[in-house]
Amino acid sequence: MSSKPMRIGVYIPKELAEEITRIMNEIGIDSVSKVVQEGLRLYIAEYRWRTEGDVVGAIGIIYDHEVGHVDEELTDLQHKYIDIIVSSLHIHLDLRNCLIIIIVRGLSKTIKKFLEDIEKIRGVKMVRLMLMSRQL
């Protein structure tokens, strides 16, 4: 059941208002309220995971597969966290570098620990995270 809408006032810089208007016109949205509501939902989804809670998202990892046993360590780590991993995709970027995308679902504190463990592996060049709360 949806609660009764609430009216609020927001002041934004002129440049931001002009950019929002331009984008709305380009994609055919005619309601600033809808844009603000979607923006707020995205903001909440993006940052709520940082507190305790159930989250879903993706972790991107770029690594040099020529370094030590990095492939084996990443695979072993995924097995250690099998309870939060939904799926993974491995892409060969060039002769040395690979990209793994790991889809995760679970408690934010467990996923944070998984990230910390990934970042400790020698050969991992970059880790990027996109997590969202499942509770909107």
Q: How do the helices and strands line up, and which of them pair or pack?
A:
Elements: H1 14-27, H2 32-48, E1 54-64, H3 70-80, E2 85-92, E3 97-107, H4 108-119, E4 124-133
Antiparallel strand pairs: 1-3, 1-4, 2-3
Describe the overall structure:
Helices cover 40% and strands 29% of the residues. With 136 residues, it is an alpha+beta fold. It has 2 domains: 14-48, no CATH class; 54-133, ACT-like. Chain A, domain 2 (Alpha-Beta Plaits), CATH 3.30.70.1150. A 4-stranded antiparallel β-sheet has the order 2-3-1-4. The longest helix is centred in the first third of the chain and has 17 residues, at 32-48. The mean pLDDT is 89.
In short:
The protein is of the alpha+beta class.
Structural class: alpha+beta
Low-confidence stretches: none
CATH topology of the largest domain: Alpha-Beta Plaits
How many E-type strands?
A: 4
Output the keywords.
Alpha-Beta Plaits; elongated; alpha+beta; single chain; 136 residues
